[in-house]
């Protein structure tokens, strides 16, 4: 654990909050420009998040949150854990941190100009390395745990696509089996896999996909939604067939069900946000599952992934489901025992009256969906400690960053 930051450093960092509010995005955009000029570092990033500006915006919000909480860093423990898990999935190593330090400090000096005094630059150098040492230490712990776990590994491991299944008009599942034939690390429901992919015409790409299968020792399954003009999702849907080999790192992520699972549970998802919940449902025994409420929004019945699975669980009394079709009116035949269908998006007033305030609520989907849903849950009286959510992309929404 690094030595605590001194009072002077913390005071300078807090005084920089107005400058970060005004220029934070310019700083992080410049920082990424510098980082991506280095091909060894460039390959660690999801380039699509650079093109749409999502990654610089997300980092700007994170740096601002760090400055605002510099006196009470315990408030950022959850964010630090999410970052460490993401770094492990992407195989970030201690030797990568100096590149980031140089890019960040250089960007601060470039954007702030004469306002970036030597005193300010020294304080930010101290603040960066304080946080970096915390992350490096936590990442080392996770790497050690992965290496020691039955079936675990560190680095990239080749997996062969052993099966692919079309789950809906937009979602395809890929079952992944290790090429070496050895067991895999048993994942915790809710975790994701990270991939190093060589996409023809685009080069090296990095992506994270939630595991949609129940925990096991032989294989994993991911379920990928085709995104309009999505470089990787198009390639996976169009070109990756049974027999294709993909490079995969060990399961990571802290958006997990936990053991024992809390009860009652509400799963709230939109689009492909359902994938970690499918894994969680597969891990619940019949007794635990009886307290589950499953609320999902999708465009049409044709885009509804895992519909037969959800209806089967509902018919067995293992959950109650509400399915919202944002662009279609459901037919009577689409309802089933334990399943209620609705036309249109999930309305927040409906959720406020339908929710069990004693439940632990898991939320996953696009940022806007999560922001509105979490705000509704809080307003309805669900304690913050009972609201858990997973990020899509880089979580570039201020309401979802501490």
- So what's the overall shape? globular
Compute the number of structural domains.
3
Structural class based on helices, strands and sheet pairing: alpha/beta
**Helical residue percent?**
40-55%
Report mean pLDDT, rounded to a whole number.
92
CATH architecture of the largest domain: Orthogonal Bundle
User: What is the CATH topology descriptor of the largest domain?
Assistant: Globin-like
Q: Biggest sheet, open or closed, and with what strands and sense?
A: 6 strands, antiparallel
CATH superfamily of the largest domain: Globins
SS strand fraction: 15-25%
N- to C-terminal distance: 22 Å
Would you identify the regions where 5 or more consecutive residues have pLDDT less than 50? none
The order of strands across the largest sheet is 4-3-6-1-2-5
- Oligomeric form: single chain
Task: Throw out a few tags for this protein.
402 residues; alpha/beta; Globin-like; Elongation Factor Tu (Ef-tu), domain 3; Rossmann fold; 3 domains; 6-stranded antiparallel sheet; 6-stranded parallel sheet; globular
Overview of this protein structure:
By secondary structure, this protein is an alpha/beta fold. It has 3 domains: 7-148, Globin-like; 156-252, Translation factors (Elongation Factor Tu (Ef-tu), domain 3), CATH 2.40.30.10; 265-391, 3-Layer(aba) Sandwich (Rossmann fold). It is 41% helix and 20% strand. It has 14 helices and 12 strands. It has helices at residues 7-15, 17-36, 39-42, 47-51, 54-68, 77-89, 97-112, 118-148, 231-239, 275-283, 286-289, 307-315, 348-354, 367-379; strands at residues 157-166, 171-178, 192-199, 203-210, 220-225, 245-252, 265-270, 292-298, 319-325, 339-343, 360-364, 387-390. The strands form 2 sheets. A 6-stranded antiparallel sheet has the order 4-3-6-1-2-5. Strands 10-9-8-7-11-12 form a 6-stranded parallel sheet, with helices on both faces. A hairpin with a 3-residue loop joins strand 3 and strand 4. Helix 1 packs across helix 8 and helix 2 (17-36) crosses helix 5. The model has no long low-confidence stretch (mean pLDDT 92).
């Amino acid at each position: 654990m690094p030595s605590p930051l001194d009072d002077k450093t913390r005071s300078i960092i807090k005084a920089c909050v107005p400058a970060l509010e005004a220029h934070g995005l310019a700083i992080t955009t410049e920082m990424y420009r510098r980082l991506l000029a280095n091909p060894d570092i460039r390959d660690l990033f999801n380039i699509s998040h650079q093109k749409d500006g999502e990654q610089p915006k997300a980092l700007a919000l994170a740096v601002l949150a760090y400055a605002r909480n510099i006196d009470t860093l315990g408030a950022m423990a959850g964010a630090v854990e999410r970052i460490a898990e993401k770094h492990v999935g992407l195989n970030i190593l201690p030797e990568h941190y100096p590149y980031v330090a140089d890019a960040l400090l250089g960007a601060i000096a470039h954007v702030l100009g004469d306002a970036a005094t030597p005193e300010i630059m020294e304080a930010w150098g101290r603040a960066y390395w304080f946080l970096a040492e915390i992350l490096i230490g936590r990442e080392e712990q996770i790497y050690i745990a992965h290496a020691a776990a039955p079936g675990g590994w560190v680095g990239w491991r080749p997996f062969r696509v052993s099966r692919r299944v079309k789950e809906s008009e937009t979602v395809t599942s890929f079952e992944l089996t290790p090429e070496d034939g050895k067991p895999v690390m048993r994942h915790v429901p809710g975790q994701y896999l990270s991939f190093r992919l060589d996409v023809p015409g685009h080069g090296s790409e990095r992506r994270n996909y939630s595991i949609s299968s129940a925990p096991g020792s032989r294989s994993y399954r991911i379920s990928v939604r085709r995104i309009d003009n999505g470089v990787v999702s198009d390639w996976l849907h169009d070109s990756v067939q049974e027999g294709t080999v993909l490079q995969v790192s060990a399961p990571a992520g802290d958006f997990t069900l936990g053991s024992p699972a809390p009860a009652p549970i509400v799963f709230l998802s939109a689009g492909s946000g359902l994938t970690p919940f499918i894994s969680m449902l597969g891990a619940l025994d019949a007794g635990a599952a009886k307290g589950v409420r499953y609320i999902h929004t999708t465009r049409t019945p044709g885009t509804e992934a895992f519909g037969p699975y959800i209806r089967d669980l509902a018919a067995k009394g293992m959950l109650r489901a509400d399915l919202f079709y944002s662009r279609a009116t459901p037919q009577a035949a689409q309802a089933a025992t334990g399943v209620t269908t609705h036309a249109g998006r999930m309305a927040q007033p409906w959720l406020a009256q339908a929710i069990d305030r004693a439940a632990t609520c898991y939320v996953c989907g696009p940022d806007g969906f999560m922001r509105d849903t979490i705000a509704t849950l809080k307003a309805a009286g669900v304690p913050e400690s009972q609201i858990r959510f997973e990020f899509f992309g880089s979580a570039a929404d201020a309401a979802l960053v501490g």
